[in-house]
């Protein structure tokens, strides 16, 4: 048995052909394939607009820039996410505040968010960044209601959840990233994600002004668009109107992204099949807590996270059997950099308990039935 990672990309012959074809085009970057990817992704998610960028971290940073995060900004997020979710606020000089998580699903606890908001004067906080952890879609309708009460913007970190959705109070399916409740949403195309382009990210929104601002910010803050120019010296002329960044994505990566997107539904179906087999296999093992998915939720299953008491022992045992699991995530508030920012130590008991028990086991569409059976049998043997 070859080593089995917790996640990995699958590159098909169609993907290779798409990239090869893109290499024959006139453009390797900032060409028409970028726009084509944006259009197809927006259609898939159900958003009005999409902006492709170099990676998910760049997407977060640009969102914070576009929303005007600065030294006076105070933003709430979850500690159970990758550090980039919080870092984007720090990049702009803002301040991060962590709300604890809901122990049932690992998502940000809206009651704890409300408590944070109530402890400070109205207007103190600027925004909130909720995360659809592991592919479990966060209920943005509930967060939007709270955000409207306190005049907050919302950046939805949906890196784990393209294709996921929740049902709102009107019974309407709301796709992650569709822009109905969040001002901006971000996605990642890292190799272990649903859609792999090597590196890459996407921002979706229904706000045209934010969309236009993001396009300028991803290219050094420079525009050539005549409708934005304050002067016009000729066809060569451009203006730098913002302090932007080089966060562009090449056409060849977008070609790969388009090809991967074309089989997104097939990949999602396979993820659900793998999840169902895991849940059934571990249902009689009391030592394993598997994800519980309530009605009205369509989990995207970027990760399949189990919770166990003896996580370190299981992690080491599986590694000895060439099964490479992962922990998602070390709570951000416990990382040395963020600890150094606090005058006193923060205690977020639900997040810390979750971290002590969570383990992401292999989950990706190309995981074979034989490989999954080996994972199941090895975990079962450990607990027997």
Class derived from helix and strand content:
alpha/beta
**CATH domain class of the largest domain:** Alpha Beta
| Number of alpha- plus pi-helical segments | 13
Query: Spans with pLDDT under 50 lasting ≥5 residues?
Result: none
Spatial order of the strands in the main sheet?
Answer: 1-9-8-5-4-2-3
- Supply the CATH superfamily name of the largest domain: Type I PLP-dependent aspartate aminotransferase-like (Major domain)
Number of strands: 14
**Could you give the distance between the termini?**
22 Å
Query: Main beta sheet, described?
Result: 7 strands, mixed
- The average pLDDT score comes to 97
What proportion of the residues form beta strands (DSSP E)? 5-15%
The CATH topology of the largest domain: Aspartate Aminotransferase, domain 2
Estimate the helix proportion, in percent.
25-40%
Judging by the overall fold, what is the CATH architecture of the largest domain?
Answer: 3-Layer(aba) Sandwich
In angstroms, what is the radius of gyration? 21 Å
Question: What general outline do the C-alpha atoms trace?
Answer: globular
